[in-house]
Each structure stands twice: as C-alpha cells, then as structure tokens.
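re: that chain from earlier
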Amino acid sequence: MRDDSADLVGKRPGLSPQTEIILNSVADGVFTVDLEWRVTSFNTAAEEITGVPAAEALGRQCCEVFRANVCETTCVLRHTLETGKPVINRPIAILRADGKEIPISVSTALLRDESGEIIGGVETFRDLSLVETLRKEIDRQYRFGDIISKSPAMQKLLSILPEVAQSESTVLIQGESGTGKELISRALHNLSGRSKGPFVAVNCGALPDTLLESELFGHVAGAFTDAKKNRSGRFALAEGGTLFLDEIGDISPALQVRLLRVLEERCYEPLGSSKTVKADVRIVTASNKDLAQLVDEGSFRKDLYYRINVVKLELPKLQDRKEDIPLLADHFIAKLNKLKDKNVLGLSHEALATFMRHDWPGNIRELENAIEHAFILCRGGLIEPKCLPEHFQGHGCAIPDFQGMTLQDIERRAIWEALERNQWRRMATARELGIDKNTLRRKIKRLNIQPAE
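^ sequence. v structure.
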C-alpha cells in the first residue's frame, strides 16, 4: 500500500461513514492505530480473520488484538511509524481469538490527516491459510524427500524408487551434471534397509588415480611416502550403509579391476596390506558420461559396466522438464529466504518467462545459482530480470523481422514459437508467456494456431 493511499481520515483519528462502508466491503483485513498504538478502526474482514469483534478491538492496544509473532520483536507497523517506510506483503503469523495460529501477509503505511500530519498507522492483512494448504498439497504431490518434480519422466522414475531402494542391487544413475544424481542416491539410501547406516559419497573425477585408490580402500602405515599411520577408506566408512561413487566413468582401467573384484567378491585389501577385508556395502554409481559408449571405445571395462548396470536410472535434463522450473524456483526462494532472512516473494512474470526460454546447460544447479545471484540484488518483493545473472539479461530478446506483419500476425507467430519451444505443452507455454492457460487456449483457438505450421 502506498503512503498516500493511507490518507483516509479527517482531522480526528476516526473514519468517515463513507470510508467505513468502503473498507468493510474489501476482502483484506484493515485496521488503524493512533500514535499511542490504540486501535481506531477495525473492518469486517479484520473481524473475520482474527476472530475479534470490532467492538472489542476499538480503543485497545493493537498488540492485544492483533497477536502476531512479530509484535514483541520486529513489529512491522512500528517500523513504518519510526522510519516512514511502508512494508509490503510481509509474511507473518497471528494467533486468532480461538487460539489457532494462521499465516497472513501484512502491508503497512503511515496514516495522515488532511493537512499531511501523521496521526497513526494503517495495516492491511490477508489470510494465507488457503495458499499454505495448496502449497502443502503441491508439496505432497510433487515432493519426494528432497526431490521436487511434476515432470512425467521424473514421476515415472520416482514411482519405482522405493522398490529399487529395497533391493540390494547395484544402481547406475546417468544424467548431466547438475541434474540431481546425488539427491537420487541419497533417496535410495534413505528408503533402503540400510537407512540407519552411513551414506558416504566420493567424487571419482575429483581425485587422481593414486589418491582415489587410497581414498576408497584405505592404506596401512608405510604403504607410500607420508603414509605414517593406518587410515580407513570410504568402503570401511560406509560399512553397513551405502557408498555413492559419482563420476565413475573417470576412473582408470587399473582401478576398474579392483572395483570389479569388490563388487563380485565383496572384499578388498587396503593399499599396502595383504589382509582381506569384507565389505558389507551397497554400491550406487553415477556418471554424466555415456558409459555404454565408453565401453565401445575401450576406455571402460564391459564386465564392470554390466556389474554396476543392474538397475539404470536416467535423469532428464532440466531443459526437458521445464514444467518443474516454477516448483524448483519456489523451493530455492523459500530456502534462501530462511538462510538470508529475506522476504522475496517469488519470480515476476518476466523473470519466469526468461527462465522458461533458457536452455539450462547447467541444469538444476544453474537454476539454484541464478536465484542465489538474484537474492544479492533483490531487496524484497518479486525477482525481476534485472536481478538475474548477466547472461540472462536480454535473454530471448532478439528482434525478429516483423516487416509487413499485422499485430495479430506477430502475436500468432510469438505464441506458435513459444509452443514449439515447449513441445506444445500448454501449461509450460503459458508460464513462459506469463499468461493464464485458459487465456492461451482461447488465443490458440482465436488465431487458429496449428502444430503443422
């Protein structure tokens, strides 16, 4: 609410009958206070949301009526009265008269008389209970542990995850970097009978071969220079649990032989030792490379490939599951709001359209980084395109040749191209264009847009 929109009263802290009728007809709760924090007006919606009748609220201290979780610490109305700055759509919680806590969003502004003198403050608030219920329902439908997706391809994969997890079979997860391979591996562990055991992850591509061998199998004192004492490897640390070998396509042929023996015989020798150690570990592997192609090229052992490829899970690129972008964006925004104590409400239509047009070579990791970058520049409210990383600036804004085309032709072409980019998925196209799906349906019919064009 803008400051000047609060100029609702005359020279005394009360509402005119006409203003009172107007305020009682709006759906948002509205109340005003004087400079001593006494409630001077309380509309019908405020009564319904708080459960407090206006007759009981008028004249009382606002903290006694509007029992919010910020009243004693960071009162938003006090902030406005002390700084002169309005607060817009701040999410908080209040305690109703019946003792039930409900989520609301509040906005505040200064209250002035006709001469411009400040005589109090005004606060509007909206019940978010339905929004929270819908959000939880969406989370219930589309959240699987830490994995969020409504993509048909991902839903199909997630539907078999519990059965795969309950087996002791070795799993190969394939997908580009940033698609969430480690999240899937952790979900497999948490759903398995080994969930109470350790989950140990190793990035095989981050270590040279000599260090990786010691990292996996451990070593005894004197096994190599600087090996001054015995050290347990990741297999020992994962005993009774799950060992996740990420980027397994990067290990050398020599180490592939050792790993094959562990998978076949369930035992290994620490580096420099002749003592065999039993391994009670479930192996989950992952790669961003096509291991079948590496086998054909001779750089990956065929017998090891078939040993780890008992169950294969293919993760789609973010480009192929763009319908998940709004869900993932909301998730990262909520996460960063808590970590950084901010109040970013979400993506603007323009920012979301920019995201929907992007190809996402870095997949989900790139999306998370883009939103974290936006948090640095966005002070609150909605994330706009100007807050996004530089390579998003002007994204998709190349000007095509519209010479000789009518406005209807231009609109028709723009919608058709958006449909093409989204494989004719109307919901994804509507999100990219920043319009309602029913509006898109009507435009497709009115403009006679066909896939064969």
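The longest helix spans residues 325-340.
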